[in-house]
Amino acid sequence: MRKGQSDLSLVEEVGRRGNMRENCHLKKGPWTSAEDAILVNYVKKHGEGNWNAVQKHSGLSRCGKSCRLRWANHLRPDLKKGMFTPDEERRIVELHAKLGNKWARMAAELPGRTDNEIKNFWNTRIKRLQRAGLPIYPPDVCLHVNLSQEESLASMPNQDSFGSNLLQSDAFELPHVEFENLELNQQYLSYSPELLNIPPKTIGLSHGYGHMFPMACPPKHLQESVSNYISMPNQLTDFACEEHYDDPCRSASPYDSDFSTNDQSSFGIPPGTDGLLSSDFSPSEPLSGPMNMELPSYQYSDYQQDSWVNTSVPLPSVESVVSLILSPPMKRAKSDTFTPKNSGLLEAVVYESQKLKSSKDESHQQSSTLMLDDVADFPLKDCELDFEAHCDSNSPSAHSAASALSEHSPGSGSSSDEAQFVESILGCNGKNETPNQSAISGLDDFLRPGQRARDKPIVTDVIAALLGEDTCTSSTF
DNA sequence: AAAAGGCCCAACCGCGGTGCA
DNA sequence: GTGCACCGCGGTTGGGCCTTT
């Protein structure tokens, strides 16, 4: 545009070319170069801000919002145009792993890039990657973020005050979560009042979540990454091999075993089985907050695409269970003191069960030997803490036992053979699977939300088997 | 060559936060 | 304390372009 050209003449030009109808109507749609010129002119004269005044003073028939957006995304002189460089791409991935869908914050870290640009890039990228069955986050990024967050965890004051800090911290913003579903959970878990020492309905679990699970309960975006590993056996073996096992960082996470254990196929979960990972959990109430803003659920693997129906979370269920089951006793034995690292809900459940069981007749003891021993020494208080963390619906594990138990509603999903399942749980199905694998497979089926109604009695038995007690005789069920 | 489908990106919408009267 | 205006953020939409069939 020629210098000195008045805003007015530009407006006239806009009026001629654009599809402005009447002055009283604000124009929408694509910006014309004339409009751009007006806006640039205006900002040069008056500076940024006060965007609503643009319309008044410059005659532009655009709302302030639209002007701001146009300026911020396209007209700002410091904007970097063109494709993202590999460095920028990597930075975005890292930032997303750290921040989640905080586009504006990410943009602040990438000079010349806009939040919209980054958002579009990311959305496109994850679509592409997920279509290809590739992980959203490269393992090294996960590890990097995990490590850095672990450091911040390590720098926390003392463990004693952990709980209170946890409840007070605002460091990580996470939504308060409606726990409609949890009411049903309580039906199952009510035998453990201590365990559920939380309001049944709305529970503000956001505080301290990040401390509790530094990346352990990473925002869903990491779950996505994790879930993608399900379809990436090679990466699984690459990343989750033994040298990572004892990595304090990795063991810090309920996802510890994610990479090493989530490969359904390696656990005898047949491809296409809509186990937990693809259970069509769809909360009756939409989850609120940032996590909810994230992708509804791209948590599916290539194996699961057919059965993928709006899966909203359940991935962690398997993780929690699996990490519990597969964690070497040594590792757990070291965990005399609770750390937020332990994936806890199932442990808590199991622990409670142990407690109850020990006060009852021990006739079923044999059937409970699979997993309980490793976790029986977990202090309940710790379990409570842990459970709170898990109850955050954004916590991957929140949907672990809680949702898994609660979502055993009639509906979709094929149920596996119950007898086999129980056998699996008990690790004695006689197949070539290792007991643990069997258990996982069984648990997967057990935890499947879409369990048929007719399975309910079986489910109860299964829970009993899992918990090592006959729930039919238990007053707590 | 044409239709269909997918991709990409600019722009819009709704909501929440903040400042001010 | 309340209402209003403004601003910023994140999710969603719609249209143009490209690729595939």
Provide structural commentary.
This protein starts with 6 loop residues before the first helix and ends in a 10-residue tail after the last helix. Residues 1-24, 156-357 and 359-477 have low confidence and may be disordered. By secondary structure, the protein is mainly α. A two-stranded antiparallel sheet has the order 1-2. The protein has helices at 7-17, 33-46, 51-58, 64-75, 86-99, 103-109, 115-131, 139-154, 162-168, 180-189, 209-212, 220-230, 233-239, 242-245, 248-251, 258-261, 290-293, 315-326, 329-333, 345-358, 380-391, 401-406, 418-426, 435-447, 456-467, and strands at 177-178, 202-203. Helix 18 (315-326) packs antiparallel against helix 24 (435-447) and helix 23 crosses helix 24. It has 3 domains: 7-75, Arc Repressor Mutant, subunit A (Orthogonal Bundle), CATH 1.10.10.60; 86-131, Arc Repressor Mutant, subunit A; 160-473, no CATH class. Helices cover 50% and strands 1% of the residues. The longest helix has 17 residues, at 115-131. The protein is built from 25 helices and 2 strands.
